[in-house]
């Protein structure tokens, strides 16, 4: 939790500084970097939402748990990022058309250098936390900050080229490239979050395990059908019909169903299974 809060605080601080300086200097690169920090805020809030909301256990009103909170937060985050990317492109093209000059270059470079230094500090701290705890969530956030280091260097190069070497449009080009990077990432987040929200079927992941069980017990297990599955948060839900020898006693049928459920849950620890046994053959 400490690493997540540190990430949220840093992203908020950097977003305020970068967006203010981009307004003062007309820098599209700084604007894009500031929006990138806003995305980091959204990512940190989604992470906190996942910790505080989606990990709550199922209750009488939410039999499948609260895992879709995380997907909903990611969906809204992706929409925000895509709109922001369009706005950055609009600002960049507008500045190229109007010929607004880049100002306060030295101050903007100082802002970016301080930003990179703080980002590097948090990245190293998160690396320590990941090494100590093995947290996948913090590891993903650390990877995001590694991308921020690269995008920050891109903005600095654009400022240097346009501010000190008269390379007209270098700052705008850096901002547009960063906007495209943000938009591309947002499309992936949008696709993955919609897959969860719309209950994309993932039965193909489980079918080989079920098929092997059927093959190993083919004298009394004839097949399976009506397979359905969905995801909510870190939990997967699977249900299907299992065709058994009609002459089996209830206790024998139950033992086969339990054996298959155990095998599936050994292969997929975050899986909840419902199996309907029916006579086949």
Number of individual domains: 2
Beta-strand segment tally:
3
The averaged pLDDT comes out at 86
Distance between the termini: 55 Å
Using the coordinates above, name the CATH class of the largest domain: Mainly Alpha
Structural commentary:
By secondary structure, the chain is mainly α. The protein has two domains: 2-197, Up-down Bundle (Alpha-lytic protease prodomain-like); 203-280, 2-Layer Sandwich (Alpha-Beta Plaits). Helices cover 70% and strands 12% of the residues. Strands 1-2-3 form a three-stranded mixed beta sheet, covered by helices on one side. Helix 8 links the parallel strand 2 (235-245) and strand 3 (271-280). Helix 4 runs antiparallel to helix 5 (136-164). The longest helix is centred in the N-terminal third of the chain and has 31 residues, at 68-98. The chain is elongated and about 85 Å long. 33% of the residues are buried. The mean pLDDT is 86.
Structure at a glance:
The chain is mainly alpha-helical. The protein has helices at 2-25, 28-54, 68-98, 105-133, 136-164, 170-197, 207-216, 250-267; strands at 221-232, 235-245, 271-280. The chain folds into 2 domains: 2-197, Alpha-lytic protease prodomain-like (Up-down Bundle); 203-280, 2-Layer Sandwich (Alpha-Beta Plaits), CATH 3.30.70.1350.
Question: What is the element layout, followed by pairings?
Answer:
Elements: H1 2-25, H2 28-54, H3 68-98, H4 105-133, H5 136-164, H6 170-197, H7 207-216, E1 221-232, E2 235-245, H8 250-267, E3 271-280
Parallel strand pairs: 2-3
Antiparallel strand pairs: 1-2
Helix pairs in contact: 1-2, 1-4, 2-3, 2-5, 2-6, 3-6, 4-5, 5-6
């Amino acid at each position: 939790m400490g690493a997540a809060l540190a990430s949220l605080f840093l992203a908020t601080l950097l977003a305020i500084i970068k967006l203010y300086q981009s307004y003062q200097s007309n820098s599209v690169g700084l604007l894009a970097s500031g929006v990138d920090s806003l995305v980091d805020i959204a990512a940190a809030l989604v992470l906190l939402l996942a910790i505080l909301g989606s990990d709550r256990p199922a209750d009488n009103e939410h039999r499948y748990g609260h895992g879709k909170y995380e997907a909903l937060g990611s969906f809204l985050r992706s929409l925000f990022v895509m709109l922001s990317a369009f706005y950055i492109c609009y600002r960049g093209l507008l500045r190229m058309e109007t010929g607004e000059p880049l100002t306060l270059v030295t101050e903007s470079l100082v802002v970016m250098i301080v930003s990179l230094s703080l980002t590097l500090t948090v990245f190293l701290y998160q690396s320590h936390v990941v090494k100590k705890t093995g947290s996948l969530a913090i590891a993903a956030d650390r990877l995001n900050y590694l991308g921020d280091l690269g995008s920050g260097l891109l903005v600095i190069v654009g400022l240097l080229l346009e501010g000190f070497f008269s390379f007209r449009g270098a700052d705008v080009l850096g901002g547009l490239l960063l906007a495209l990077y943000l938009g591309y990432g947002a499309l992936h987040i949008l696709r993955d979050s919609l897959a969860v929200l719309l209950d994309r079927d993932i039965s193909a992941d489980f079918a080989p395990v079920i098929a092997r069980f059927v093959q190993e017990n083919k004298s009394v297990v004839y097949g399976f059908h009506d397979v359905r599955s969905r995801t909510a948060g870190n939990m997967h839900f699977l249900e299907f019909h299992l065709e058994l020898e009609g002459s089996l006693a209830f206790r024998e049928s139950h033992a086969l169903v339990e054996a298959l459920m155990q095998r599936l849950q050994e292969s997929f620890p975050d899986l909840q299974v419902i199996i309907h046994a029916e006579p086949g053959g």
